[in-house]
Amino acid sequence: MRFELFIAARYLRAKRRQAVIGVITAISVLGVAAGVASLIIALAITNGMRRDLQERLLGSTSHVELMRVSADGIRDWRPLLDKLRALPHVTAAAPGLYGQVLISRGARSGGGLVKGVIPADEEKVSDLLQAVTRGSSRPLQPQVNPDAGDAQATPPIVIGKDLAETLGAEVGDTVLVTSPQGELTPLGLVPRYQRFQVVGIFASGFYQYDSSYTFVRLTDAQRLFSEPDLISVISFKVDDLYRANIIGRTIEETAGKGFQATNWMEQNRELFRALKLEQIVTFIVLALIVCVAALNILIALTMMVMEKTKDIAVMMSFGVTAAQVRRVFLLQGLMISVIGTGVGLVVGYGISLAGGHYRFPLDASVYSIDYLPFAPRFVDALIVAGVSLGVSAIATLYPSSSAAKVLPAEALRYE
C-alpha cells in the first residue's frame, strides 16, 4: 500500500479526540450516499417514463401518417394505398377514417374518437386491437360470405377500458354513437347516430387512448359520417422508426401535391422535450445534495487538519514532503466520497430494481400511464459517480493545501 493511502486510511479509522469530526465524517458519507441514490432513482424514473411512453406511443400509433392538406379526405384511395405500400422501407400501410363523436349508454355519455379500420391492415400498424382484454376484435372482420346477409344487425365496436368505465359498458352492451356531421333536413341540421354493440374492450395502459379511442369497421364509419368510400388518413409502419421523418418525406413526394405526411417524432416532440427538460432539472436539483455533502467533507477535513497539525509537523520533520501530505488528505476525502458513492449506487439500483419488479400504481388520468416505470442504466451510474467524485475532489483541495503549508518548526515550538 502506498504511504499516503496508508496514512489516509489510518486517519479515517482513528479514534477522534474531537467526536464532532467523526460525526461530520459519517454525515458526509451518508450525504454522498443519499445524493447518489436519489440521482440514480430519479434518472431511472425519467428514463422509464420516456421509454414506456415511447413504446406505448409507437405501439398504439403508426410511425408515419399521410393525409390531405385540406379537410376533404382521400378519395380513390385504393390505388394510392397499393402504390405507397410498395415503397422502400415501408413495412405496412392501413387506411383509416377518423371522426369525433359522442358515445352514450343510458344516462352516461362521453366524447370519443371513432376510427374506421380494416382490422387485418390496422393490426400491422397499431397494437391497440391486439390489446383487447375483454371480448374480441374478431367481429370487426368483414363477413366471409356477403351473400348471407348481415348476421349482426347492430354493427360491432371496440372501445378503451377507461371509456368503458365512464359509460358503465361491458362486452355485449349497446352504445349510441352520435356524429356531429349531421344531415340537412327541413327542420335544420340533424345529427346522425347509430347504435353499436360493444364486442371488445382494449387496455393499452395509455390513458389518452383508453379513455377516448374506439374502433369500428371502415364501412360502418363511412356510413355513420355519410362519406362513402372516403378515408381521412393512411397510416404506415417503417423499418427504421428513427428515420421516420425522411421516409415520411418520400411518402409525401410519392403521393403528390395536396398531401402532407407527419411522423411520430413531430406529433410527440413537445412531450419528449418536456421529459428531457425534466430529466436535466431533476439532475441539477438532486446534485445539490451531493454538493452539500461535499461541504461536509470540506469541514471534516479542515477540522482533521487542525487536529493533526502536530502529526503533520512530525511527519514533515522526518522527511515527508508537502506533496505527500497534500495527497494524504486528498485520498482521505476521496475515500469518504468513494464509500458514500458506492453505498448510494447499491441503494439506488436496489430500489430501482425493486420498483421495476413491484410496480407502483399511478393515476393514469394524470400521468398518462398506470404505473411508475423504472429503467436504470449503466451509463447513469458512470455519470453520477463521476459527478460525485469530482465534486468531492474539489472539496478536498483547500484542506489538503492547508495541510501541505504546515511549518514543522512553528507547529512543534511549544510541544
TrEMBL record:
<comment type="similarity">
    <text>Belongs to the ABC-4 integral membrane protein family. LolC/E subfamily.</text>
</comment>
<feature type="transmembrane region" description="Helical">
    <location>
        <begin position="374"/>
        <end position="398"/>
    </location>
</feature>
<dbReference type="Pfam" id="PF12704">
    <property type="entry name" value="MacB_PCD"/>
</dbReference>
<dbReference type="InterPro" id="IPR051447">
    <property type="entry name" value="Lipoprotein-release_system"/>
</dbReference>
<protein>
    <recommendedName>
        <fullName>Lipoprotein releasing system, transmembrane protein, LolC/E family</fullName>
    </recommendedName>
</protein>
<feature type="transmembrane region" description="Helical">
    <location>
        <begin position="20"/>
        <end position="45"/>
    </location>
</feature>
<keyword id="KW-0812">Transmembrane</keyword>
<keyword id="KW-1133">Transmembrane helix</keyword>
<dbReference type="InterPro" id="IPR025857">
    <property type="entry name" value="MacB_PCD"/>
</dbReference>
<feature type="transmembrane region" description="Helical">
    <location>
        <begin position="327"/>
        <end position="354"/>
    </location>
</feature>
<dbReference type="GO" id="GO:0044874">
    <property type="term" value="P:lipoprotein localization to outer membrane"/>
</dbReference>
<dbReference type="Pfam" id="PF02687">
    <property type="entry name" value="FtsX"/>
</dbReference>
<feature type="transmembrane region" description="Helical">
    <location>
        <begin position="280"/>
        <end position="306"/>
    </location>
</feature>
<keyword id="KW-1003">Cell membrane</keyword>
<dbReference type="InterPro" id="IPR003838">
    <property type="entry name" value="ABC3_permease_C"/>
</dbReference>
<feature type="domain" description="MacB-like periplasmic core">
    <location>
        <begin position="25"/>
        <end position="239"/>
    </location>
</feature>
<feature type="domain" description="ABC3 transporter permease C-terminal">
    <location>
        <begin position="284"/>
        <end position="406"/>
    </location>
</feature>
<dbReference type="GO" id="GO:0098797">
    <property type="term" value="C:plasma membrane protein complex"/>
</dbReference>
<keyword id="KW-0472">Membrane</keyword>
